[in-house]
Structure formats: C-alpha cells, structure tokens
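User: Structure please.
Assistant: Input sequence and predicted structure:
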Amino acid sequence: MQAFTALLRASPVIPVLTIDHVADAEPLAQALAAGGLSVVEVTLRTPAALDAITAMKRAAPGLVVGAGTILRPADLDAAMSAGSDFIVTPATTQALVAPLKGCGVPVIPGVATPSEILARLDDGFDVLKLFPAEQYGGTGTIAALTGPLPQARFCPTGGIGRDKVASYLALKNVVGVGGSWIATGRQIAERDWAGITANARAAAAFAGA
C-alpha cells in the first residue's frame, strides 16, 4: 500500500468513471493517459463496467485502473477477475473487511463517520475514502479529523469539482481526491476525447502543487 500511496501523491486527482458502453473504454483510457493521468477508478454501476476495466488496461498498459462501488464480496470477486489494480468502496460492511484485506491489491475503503474511520484503521487500512465528501462537510470535516485521528489519511470523493481540488490537496491528511468532472457522462456519451484529455491535463497539473 505504501507504493500505491506514493503513486496517489504523484497523481493525486483520480477520475471517477461511469462507463455505459465497452466500446468507449479504449479511447477513454487513451484520452486520460494522453492528459498525463496515471490512476483511474471505474465504478461498477453499469453492466459494461467490468469489461471496461479489462479494455482500459489493455488500451493503456501504463494506466492503473481500479474498481469502485464495491458493495459485497461478489463485487470484489468480479472486479479482481476483471484485472482491477485497486479497489474502492463507498462504505464498508463487516462482511467486506476480510475479503478486502485478502484480495491482494490496494484497497481504499469508504467511511463517513469518526467511528467508521477508527474501525477501518483498526482493520489495518491505511488510506480511507471519505464519501460523500462535500455533503459531509468537505475540507472542514477532514481538517477537524486531524486532531483526534492524525494517523488517518484520506482520498475523498463526492461533489468535488475542479474548483475545490486545491483546497482538499492542501490538507496534510489528504493524499488524493476523486472527481467525475474529468470525464463526465455527457463527455463520454458525446465521445469528446479531446475535452477529456484537456480535463485530464488540468487534473495532472495538481500534482506537486
């Protein structure tokens, strides 16, 4: 997980992607890679998602492609079979903890409360996904958590637009942020690969800022 955390710090803005058609996966991966991004998350919210993960990895071998919206152990099994490089959950039930710990790839488990944060830290997870970040107080909440839980590190997602990225990354306990603004559903549907590459380039520019 340390190597993955270092990768997040080097490429801290993660596109959160919802892909409806597998045919879009290859040009989407190439557009994101062309913009300089290294890490992407494909949400398991559509029937095409699993095949899209496989297709993206094939189209852009240097891209680290993770699976999000893992809700149950069966989702985890499917994501691993598709070749996911990391796993993200929006929330984390007790039934998921052991499978997540044993899956063999980095995991960013979803949390929303101090109790959940402490439980996931006790489970041995290093980086946590605060979700939905903006709805739960955004940067103010994360900054406040530094006092009682200084060991917690976050990769928040949920409502974080391009205009708010810098304020999140300025927090010492944030290692990355996820956002859907880099490749929106409309852009993907319209096959606006040039626009997505431009957004990816803007996201990549936050590295080291």
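The chain has one domain: 2-204.
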